[in-house]
Specification:
Number of strands: 8
Strand content: 5-15%
Structural class: alpha+beta
Radius of gyration: 18 Å
Distance between the termini: 55 Å
Shape: globular
Largest sheet: 8 strands, mixed
Order of helices and strands: HHEEEEHEHEHEEHH
């Protein structure tokens, strides 16, 4: 069966299932942002993973399936203990890391990517240099979690310390993970984090970048906390 035929077959099964499918809207959003990761160059192939939480259930991408082939019924639903409660496919190998974020924070979405510049920076630094105030979106300079084999509880534990007070981490020799109040929020942080890392590499290629000092960054962080609010209109 061609990929396009599989997609249509999956959508047909989803439509026929009606309200019986658990987390329908979340499953569709997970697919949309999974495809966006590839489109925006934040990951390659089937690497990376995306999840969204509603109550005690989490919709998460399956392992090893091309994103352009995903249909709602392929998205796995697990509970907060990692047990599969809906879907026939095996969930992402990074379930331990997603569960850690959901248990430790009030996040409603997690996006794990393999972006070129952010991953490269994680090879040579312990945190992102303060080259731009948009790092305030992630709570400050993003820390690099020490290396551990992907998909393991050990990796999740390495992430625990690095994520304190932040909403994104870099994973040494691996990639990046961000989280937020929605998939759009978590994904936007992934995009800005990669842009900031790329900015640093570009600047370093031609000179010694000026970094923001603590006061400059704090002032910008205070302003960005209110970015987009319309209370004074």
């Amino acid at each position: 069966m061609l990929a396009s035929e599989r997609r249509w077959a999956g959508r047909f099964r989803w439509m026929m299932g009606g309200s019986r499918m658990l987390l329908q809207a979340a499953r569709l959003s997970v697919i949309d942002y999974s495809r966006a990761m590839v489109r925006d160059g934040l990951t390659v192939g089937t690497s990376g993973n995306v999840s969204a939480r509603e109550g005690q259930h989490i919709a998460i991408t399956p392992t090893g399936v091309a994103y352009d082939e995903l249909t709602p019924d392929m998205i796995t639903v697990i509970d907060m203990d990692g047990n599969r409660v809906d879907g026939s496919l095996k969930p992402s190998s990074e379930v331990p890391m997603h569960l850690l974020v959901y248990r430790e924070t009030d996040a409603r979405a997690v996006v794990h990517t393999h972006p070129l510049y952010a991953t490269a920076l994680g090879l040579i630094a312990d945190e992102t240099p303060l080259v731009h105030y948009t790092l305030a979106m992630c709570g400050g300079p993003v820390r690099v979690a020490p290396y551990a084999t992907y998909g393991t509880p050990e990796l999740a534990e390495k992430v625990r310390a690095a994520m304190a007070g932040r909403s994104a981490v870099l994973l040494r020799n691996h990639g990046a993970t961000s989280w937020g109040a929605s998939l759009n929020d978590a994904y936007t942080k992934s995009v800005y984090l990669e842009w900031t890392c790329r900015l640093w590499f570009v600047a370093r290629s031609v000179g010694d970048p000026h970094l923001l000092n603590a006061m400059e960054f704090r002032d910008a962080a205070d302003k960005i906390a209110d970015y987009g609010r319309q209370d004074d209109c």
